[in-house]
Amino acid sequence: MKNSYTCPACGKEFAWDDETDETLVRCPSCKGEMIAPKALLDKGFRLGDYEVIRRIGVGGMGEIYLADQLSMKRCVALKILHDDIAGDKAYIQRFFHEVRMLAAIEHPGIVRAIEAGYDKGIYFLSMEFVTGSDLKRMLDDGKIFSEADALKIVRELAKTLKYVWDSKGILHRDVKPANIMISEDLEVKLMDLGISKNIKENLELTVPGMMVGSPQYVSPEQAKADKTIDFRADIYSLGATLYHMICGEPPFNRENSVAILAAHLSDPVPDPRKKNRKISLACAELIKKMMAKKRDERFSSWQSLISSIDSMLASMETPVRRSESPGSAASSSSAGRAKSIFLHSKPRIAIFALLLLILLALLINLAIVSAGQERHRKAKNLYDTAEKFIRDNPDPLREIRVKLEMLESAAKAGDPKIAKIAKKRMGEVVEFAKREKSGIEKKQKIESFEEVRQKAYSLQIKGEFRKALDLLTKYRDEGPYSADPELRKLADREIEFIKRKMTKEEGQ
């Protein structure tokens, strides 16, 4: 049974067959190896009213199983939370938020929720089980959709998302192929409202500054962790999904998640016709508008998008009449005149060719200048995004790897000036982190010594000088900072003080 997993090294998803008897899995993207993902629940495991049949998916919050609902004698999809997050109140709140979201929606295009519960230390949610396949598995198997079929699927999804937005004020925030099911009856259903957001409730279920969504399909405003997103973020993600369906790959394929997010923020939307020549100009323009960097340049409503798709589908069904081409035969007299003109026009042709070469040189120079300006714009955008992330995460030791990766992306964008600034900033980030870490370590050392010194002082008050000396000596020679010269010096000073005090006490 193939499932999707995320490589911890490069952040890219890949398919893995649970039934394969292997200890290690190799990521097809970065070639890194990891321990083969193992299902949390075994076949036959009982959870409330449900008996596990097999695992069918893995998500960021937990795993999904095909299970038998014993009381109703039907198959359901059973979603459970990972053990390491089940004790986190914020995640539990988000989990039950998903339940409330699903329960509030009755629509044929949404996978229906059945029950949420807690049993044997496991939080679970049972949902309608849809027989069929999700788009991601179909794409992973090499499926490339025709333009018409892809538009029909996107139209159905747009209608569903229009319903949840217009009637409930709900955003999905994670529209992607893995969350789109095509049933055996060819019904299109949207899954996983786990990170959806109800604008009316204004729920804050995510960490401030944390991006919500999947990197390959996320909108620029989500990549910036903008809290003011609306339905146009879902339109962007749906556009990226449409691109993947007709081209066989996401719009931005990069080496890691940070680079992918940077592309969503800065790179122009790629023309799908370069990947698939069968795609029409109208479809390319549709994707370009759906994935516009500025949300004000996208479709102003779900209905306007649906209407545009309807027009495109209608034009596909209408045969196009081609105008008849004019006759290609020419009279011999016309040929003669053409030959005469050619013979008498050689000087003019030479002048024209020279002018053409000059124009071509100017165009090449303009293209070089334009390319340089574009590289500068992209690099500056990447650098500004990195700076904003650093401001939003002021702790020098927090998210340092992400900070450096974002700055490195700006440095590699091809603009020498920005590269110099970004590299200097990378050095500053590393230096600030070293200082902060050094300060924390120094504070910990002092606190550690003070704790031992206080215990030694308590022993001195009781007259137990020998025990106080033994405590400090052992701390100096065997303690966690025994190799630190500064701490050893402090300990020696305290030991000498106690010895003098003990000698004085004994002399009396």
Shape: flat
The major β-sheet equals:
6 strands, antiparallel
Instruction: Using the CA coordinates, give the radius of gyration.
Output: 33 Å
What is the count of DSSP helices, taking H or I runs of 4+ residues? 15
- SSE order: EEEEEEEEHHEEEHHEEEEHHHHHHHHHHH
Topology:
Layout: E1 2-6, E2 13-17, E3 24-26, E4 33-35, E5 46-47, E6 50-58, E7 62-69, E8 74-81, H1 83-86, H2 89-103, E9 113-119, E10 122-128, E11 132-134, H3 135-140, H4 147-168, E12 170-171, E13 180-183, E14 188-190, E15 197-198, H5 220-223, H6 231-247, H7 257-266, H8 281-290, H9 302-317, H10 332-344, H11 346-392, H12 400-411, H13 416-461, H14 465-478, H15 485-507
Antiparallel strand pairs: 1-2, 3-4, 5-6, 6-7, 7-8, 8-10, 9-10, 11-13, 12-15, 13-14
What tags apply to this protein structure?
6-stranded antiparallel β-sheet; alpha+beta; 508 residues
Summarize the structure in short:
The N and C termini lie far apart (84 Å). The chain is of the alpha+beta class and 508 residues long.
